[in-house]
């Protein structure tokens, strides 16, 4: 594989974009990324999306968006891995460039979720779980995560308020991200008073859906020269692992085996240990997922991630800053786009563009995107190479 | 890119498999391909599928099928490019192996279409077209193709019966393919008497939907040694091009620009001319598509593909044999699986396994898979390397 780099990034705000269609959002993100990269166009388009067949009655997003953004005749297809579709598109772009077949690739994540009613979105999101053996029994996606959280609290003796720091950190960081969905600080009282969704998950444990698009430009590393004003962003590792799609099939549902495998392989590829990671954009679809990710990736002992959070170690000044731009919780979770937003945000940190939530001397950042309740997990590690 | 080869093939019959779920069909095809390759497992799974979110309420097929077939922890994701999803999965597998990242990849195409009522399938298939600018106007997928066929007949002076040889050849070849959906010979009278679907397309112009799965094993070419009994199947070219998704946006709707671009690039990569192709598994979703493909790929002049067919040149004994195992028309068209069936069939020809429809001395075969009404078009060229 030849080494690759991220040359440009682009994103739309995550919001209820009733005035923009899916293709409008996609174009906005791709054009922003191309402009950021100093390019007019690219050779191929890899689209991450989960829900457009169900919510927009539109398949075939590769050709649709390639046509709309003027990529006439060019390679384009969609990849889908539930909520990990965004990172899957990034990895598809990386493999295409690494193979030598493609010189400049766009990885785009796009999702349009708010044009339909909530119950339809809930049903659509449930297609990430096993239709025959989970959804058929009436369980929803948040319901599966609620089962995990309740068991985790029981096993490790945490109370619900102990998860508050995850949400508080995400909301605090999103205040400084103009692309975030939510811009309101919260405290423990607000966290505890929030309406229940599926016991013990309440509204402030859960990430909000939204419309949005994010894009990155992937190129061979040798084509990018670091400059005084901007480091070269090398892709040190791109990995993925899967686990059983049904949660009940797992030997140990409280350990994200796919996160462990994917992160371990990423550390090996990058030749480093978890201690070398300066920030970690993880997949906090629910507070319990943030906890399980930190543990599976080696940042906390089993059952101890809430302690890490309670001790302030997940803030931008902490030992392992997470969700530095708001995370899924407050930047928002436009499902098929989320994995690309995470990469965009890691690049912003490595470029030093994050203002009050900038992690000091950030050189190596990790992003992890989860599909289903831990079934498909992508890990990317990026490094800033200075002039 | 390092050279790659197809080591194994597997398929299920295309049929109404009411007794088997999508994952059952997938497993049957993958296990057959692994057995054919002499392997116990592989490193990654790339799934081509179009309709499962809509018809089966199931997304996330990568993790779902990886889990079901015992690919625990392994890389897996779904690619979607409408009816070209199968070839998109094959290309994703080829790029992954070519990059050096993956050693053995499974490309799987799978589709389960007959568990739901026909009108729902028609609506689901329409998601391959532009939801906002085509489907919104009430046009169906067959309706779009009917407009093209009527215009073609008007422009070039053909009558409907002139398209009969495409269907007659497909049905005749499928008689000898145990995996084909239809096993009945037809003649011109049957073709002309067939019930109308969307004027001028009648039932025997159109390919039948069906349930099915097909799989191929992609490996580095250097890992395969040709033997007396079986040639090595080299991938000489894997290409794709896109065109506007809406047919009305094209300057010349009767010329498949994406087929032309994709085939031209494939010929260049393979270093050969159309005359070198011994057989061509093309995408005859409708007879008009067979005609347009032959013309765009250089096998007939504009407007002259029906003449090629009328002169018998598309049969296994002709100048450019097409649909040698039945094509979409008679092998059947389980949409997201079709592109993989085509590759399986080319490999069967190159191995000399096709009995009465074997193309004599077949050394180089081409497959072309079309998504939408010509919007995404993949071309693969394979070569048999003898001992």
**Rg of chain A computed from alpha carbons, rounded to a whole number of angstroms:** 19 Å
The secondary-structure element order of chain A is EHEHHEHEHHHHEEEEHEHHHHEE
Oligomer: homodimer
Largest sheet of chain A: 9 strands, mixed
Provide the residue-averaged pLDDT of chain A. Answer: 96
- The helix content of chain A, as a percent range, equals 25-40%
The first-to-last residue Cα distance of chain A is 24 Å
Globally, the shape of chain A reads globular
Poorly predicted runs of 5 or more residues of chain A: none
Spatial strand arrangement across the major sheet of chain A: 3-2-4-7-1-8-11-10-9
Which pair of protein chains has the largest interface, and what are the residue counts? A-B, 63 and 63 residues
* Annotation field: number of helices of chain A: 13
As a percent range, the share of strand residues of chain A is 15-25%
Number of strands of chain A: 11
User: What is the SS-derived class of chain A?
Assistant: alpha/beta
Report on this model:
The structure is a homodimer of 387-residue chains. Chain A is an alpha/beta fold and 387 residues long. Chain A is built from 13 helices and eleven strands. In chain A, strands 3-2-4-7-1-8-11-10-9 form a nine-stranded mixed beta sheet, sandwiched between helices. Chain A has a two-stranded antiparallel sheet with strand order 5-6. In chain A, helix 4 (85-98) packs across helix 13 (335-351). The mean pLDDT of chain A is 96. The interface between A and B is large, with 63 and 63 residues.
